[in-house]
Automatic annotation (TrEMBL):
UniProt keyword Transmembrane helix present: yes
Recorded family membership: Belongs to the peptidase S28 family.
Gene Ontology annotations of biological process type: proteolysis
Protein name: Serine protease K12H4.7
TM annotation in the entry: 6-27
InterPro entries: AB_hydrolase_fold (IPR029058), Peptidase_S28 (IPR008758), Ser_carbopepase_S28_SKS (IPR042269)
PANTHER family (UniProt xref): PROTEASE S28 PRO-X CARBOXYPEPTIDASE-RELATED, SERINE PROTEASE K12H4.7
Superkingdom of origin organism: Eukaryota
GO molecular function: dipeptidyl-peptidase activity; serine-type exopeptidase activity
Keywords: Glycoprotein, Hydrolase, Membrane, Protease, Signal, Transmembrane, Transmembrane helix
């Protein structure tokens, strides 16, 4: 696990994801590092192992199985310490996930056994022969949680003979944090304590708050007001030019697009792509080496010697690293999402087309459609209908978006107190996802990271640049110690 390359990016942005992972363009200085905690553990010492898991936990007439991957770090385990169960989310599980992140440091201190289970349908844990819409029906949080408990039972009792006195603590960040909370709520007899970092718990459909937090974070910067204003000017200029039959072509040229784009869905796709640069910076800048921060983006944006649109272009090209044209059409995006084959021979599905699975989860259980529908943010032209249409066009039939069931099932941001006694919610104030987390209440166990971004509390302490993270991590550790006593 790259602590924290992982975790929810926009689901759209195949193009920026390509540039971010290849990273030789000038704004992205280096490939994001894997934040290995224990250098004495060789990469080859941690190997993927396979667990035979049920395809459908809730159909007793279905005995099909699939191989689910897991990795173990038993270096610190002394036979009686706790078990750290690391939940992997909506991406390929790196073998290093049991040797990275702050929990590895704590595991060392507590002689814990660390194990991580890959989420069904992601990475190498394919459930079905392909990812056709019908075959995605076993991709639900209920199934994923059942995977966890069935696995934990086998792992602790049969595989490692963990004494029953050892407590099991689950960790997860972002969507995996949501699962970490759900796991302790639904199966309290299995999980003694759970840490849920930056966990979106509120399944809102129109997630306009995401962009509001970005605006708020920009306004905390010294040049924030001007930066925001220039973003708006640049956006307006693009819209104005695209609507002009002659100047449309200028946009195509300036942004190196493969073709002229239409006013509707193409424009939305393009504007969402542009906003994603800022979203990624807001989630990971200042935190994960190699990611540009909002601060640096704003420094470019306020350069008075150029027009706002030129500053925008500078950023745009800084994020790209190939001479190929940029295909930002709606049609291409949909085609990418529609790709449902599994390529077992290499990692292309994992890196690029994995977003189909996450999109499916959003289109069915969570919503989380990031929109520009709020007035309190600078972006424009990706509204709710656009986002909703993607689900329909990708999955061929209208998937049932059942966020109301998700709320009934898990309680959203006001879960029953008794069910979350053993859950610690960690939220960061500058995380665009924070509005969907539990961050205010005297009822629940909460730790807030002031000025922190997405999952900042999970970064190993020596890598952290946000001052408040150390304090927050101390607090989290004290909760863990309490839970162990
Ligand atoms: C294992 O480690 C835990 C936590 O550090 C400690 O409390 C326990 O006594 C140790 N057990 C053994 C057998 O050394
Ligand atoms: C549009 O492109 C044409 C031809 O390259 C150029 O002459 C013109 O100045 C451009 N207009 C704007 C507003 O960028
Ligand atoms: C958070 O950021 C603001 C604005 O930069 C700063 O004034 C404040 O001291 C920071 N708080 C902490 C706890 O670092
Ligand atoms: C990188 C990669 O594997 N991309 C694939 C995603 O899906 C489309 C199908 O629409 C393929 O053409 C791409 O090669």
């Amino acid at each position: 696990m790259y602590c924290l390359k992982i975790y929810i990016l926009f689901y759209i942005l195949i193009i920026s994801m390509v540039s971010i992972s290849q990273c030789n363009s000038f704004l992205i200085k280096s490939k994001p590092d894997v934040m290995i905690v224990d250098e004495s553990i060789q990469i080859h010492e941690i190997v993927y192992q396979l667990f035979v898991q049920k395809v459908d936990h809730f159909n007793l007439l279905d005995d099909r199985t699939f191989f689910q991957r897991f990795v173990v770090n038993s270096k610190y385990w002394n036979g009686t310490g706790p078990v750290f169960f690391i939940i992997s989310g909506e991406q390929n599980m790196e073998a290093s996930s049991v040797n990275s992140c702050q929990y590895t440091i704590w595991a060392k201190q507590l002689n814990a056994l660390i194990v991580s289970l890959e989420h069904r349908y992601y990475g190498g844990s394919y459930v079905t022969e392909d990812l056709s819409t019908d075959n995605l029906k076993y991709l639900t949080t209920q199934q994923a949680l059942a995977d966890c408990v069935v696995f934990i039972d086998w792992f602790t009792k049969v595989y490692y003979h963990v004494p029953s006195s050892s407590k099991i603590i689950s960790f997860g960040g972002s969507y995996a944090g949501t699962l970490s909370a759900y796991l302790a709520m639904k199966y309290p007899s299995k999980i003694s304590f759970s840490v849920a970092s930056s966990a979106p718990l509120n399944p809102v459909v129109n997630f306009y708050q995401y962009m509001e937090v970005i605006q708020k974070s920009i306004l905390l910067l010294n040049n924030g007001e001007k930066c925001l204003n220039n973003i708006k000017l640049a956006n307006n200029k693009i819209i104005e030019m695209i609507h002009d039959p002659i100047l449309t072509y200028n946009i195509t040229k300036l942004f190196g697009l493969c073709s002229n784009i239409d006013f509707d869905n193409d424009l939305s796709t393009f504007m969402f792509e542009i906003a994603n640069v800022w979203g990624t910076a807001a989630q990971y800048g200042n935190l994960v080496p190699g990611y540009i921060s909002l601060d640096s983006l704003c420094n470019i944006m306020v350069d008075d010697s150029k027009e706002p649109l030129d500053n925008y272009l500078y950023i745009w090209y800084g994020m790209k690293n190939s001479d190929e044209c940029n295909d930002v059409t709606y049609q291409t995006m949909i085609a990418n999402f529609k790709y449902s084959q599994i390529d077992h021979l290499n990692t292309r599905n994992e890196l690029f087309n994995m977003t189909r699975q996450w999109l499916f989860q959003c289109c069915t259980e969570f919503g989380f459609f990031i929109t520009s529908d709020s007035y309190d943010q600078p972006f424009t032209n990706f509204n709710f209908n656009f986002q909703r249409q993607i689900c329909i066009d990708v999955f061929g039939k209208k998937p049932t978006l059942s966020t109301s069931w998700t709320l009934v099932e898990y309680g959203g941001i006001s879960p029953n107190y008794n069910s979350v006694r053993n859950v610690l919610f960690v939220s960061s104030t500058n995380d665009p996802w924070s509005s969907l987390s539990i961050s205010k209440s005297n009822q629940y166990k909460i730790v807030i990271v002031e000025n922190g971004t997405h999952c900042s509390d999970m970064i190993p302490i020596n890598e952290v640049s946000v001052p408040d993270v150390a304090r927050a991590q101390n607090e989290i550790f004290n909760y863990i110690l309490d839970a162990l006593n």
